Amino acid sequence: MGVSTVITSGKGGVGKSTVSVGLGRALAQKGRRVLLVDCDAGLRSLDRMTGVEESLVFDLADVVEGRAAPADAIYPCAEATGLYLLPAPSSGERMASPQVMRRLAELLKRYYDYVLLDSPAGVGDGFRSAAYGADRALVICSPDPVCVRSANAVKGLLEEISVLEPRLVINRFNGDFFWETGVYSDLDSVIDASGVQLFGVVPEDFSLAAAFLKGKKAPERSSGMMALARIAERLEGASVPIAL
């Protein structure tokens, strides 16, 4: 039986989907079977980012509404053996309910080592639906006060639905900018303000974002992919230092 993880953020624009795809690729490279589930109904992006956009016939709503078996709506991702995608519906009105998502996630975990649920930004119905299918959570944020405050709010909502002990991933970290702004004295201040235990730091990496926008894999030795590979190892239980 696999593990389901919701990848979420209280604020948009923090690179949550980039983390989802990169982490999926890193886990697949370790020989794991990984399923990305795009839960952002109406604003789906993972099909583009994983290179399967032109192959889509069915999506998550077709599975939930009984028009397709799960296997018919799951697509192998480009340039990533072991990584698959269940795309979101193109219409926001066809979002799966929380209870249905929970049952679906339990089914999918029988066939995949990792089910990564890419939640919509914010804390609306889409977030709740994605979170209901999760055993655990990664909260993605950038080190700015608005995003950090939203991470703390997400933690509270996750705990309300029994997704306990979420972990924080600071994304798009730029050390020079961080120290220049001086909003926080150090990363410990960011962690304290969010109230979420740190799990990883992903540096600003334009090559990572550019590759995924084209549906390609990012360079393995890029700073972003190396950071995501370390996060993948931590998900596997390894003790890996957090590097900046």
Your description of this structure?
This protein is of the alpha/beta class. It has a single domain (3-235), classed as Rossmann fold, CATH 3.40.50.300. 39% of the residues lie in helices and 17% in strands. The chain has 10 helices and 8 strands. It has helices spanning 16-29, 46-49, 60-64, 98-108, 125-132, 145-160, 175-181, 187-194, 206-213, 223-235; strands spanning 3-8, 34-38, 75-76, 83-86, 114-118, 136-141, 167-173, 197-203. It has an 8-stranded mixed β-sheet with strand order 3-4-2-5-1-6-7-8, with helices on both faces. Helix 1 crosses helix 10, helix 4 (98-108) runs parallel beside helix 5 and helix 6 runs parallel beside helix 8. The protein is globular and about 55 Å long. The mean pLDDT is 91.
Short description:
The chain is 39% helix and 17% strand. The protein is an alpha/beta fold and 244 residues long.
